[in-house]
Amino acid sequence: MDIKNLSVMIKSIIESIEGCYTTTTEKKGLGFVPKNKWNIKWGQIDVNDQKIRIVLDTMPGKYTRELIENILDIPEKHKGSKKTGYFIKKTDKSIPFYDAIEISIYHDYQKNIPTKELLEFIKTCARESSFKTKAS
Predict the structure, then answer these.
(1) How do the pLDDT tens digits run along the chain, 136 residues long?
(2) CATH class of 3-129
(3) Residues near 74 by Cβ (< 8 Å), separated by ≥ 6?
(4) Is 51 helix (H, G, I), strand (E, B) or coil?
(5) What CA–CA distance (Å, rounded) separates 40 from 33?
(6) CA angle centred on 40, ends 36 and 46, rounded to 5°
(7) Whole-angstrom Cα distance, residue 3 to residue 67?
(8) How do strand 43-47 and strand 51-58 relate by DSSP bridges?
């Protein structure tokens, strides 16, 4: 998988959703921060030669481990693990709090990532990102 091209595709998907946009800095390189129509950060994308790390803030309780595994077809991992996978940091509170889904894909991952499904999932998260408001 070409993680640099994936980063460009993710950025394009996010920016295709009305009200969503991305910001970046020279330090982030191909990485960026997605923001919603309220100008609120709802995740981050980090890219380096080894991996792409996708963090998405989602509505509390909306996504389960089973649902993520069915959509992405990648294994669950522990935070800080240096292998392809995902983990969910769940909150037991309601909005304005949020769950955070972190997806790490390393360049040498042997299994094919379902890119179409991953991009569709990110698109859905972008559409739902307006739940984070200035009051959040």
Answers:
(1) 688 899 999 999 999 999 999 999 888 888 999 999 999 999 999 999 899 999 999 999 999 999 999 988 889 998 888 999 999 999 999 998 999 999 999 987 878 888 899 999 999 999 999 999 876 5
(2) alpha beta
(3) 84, 85, 86, 103, 105, 111, 113
(4) strand
(5) 10
(6) 85
(7) 23
(8) antiparallel
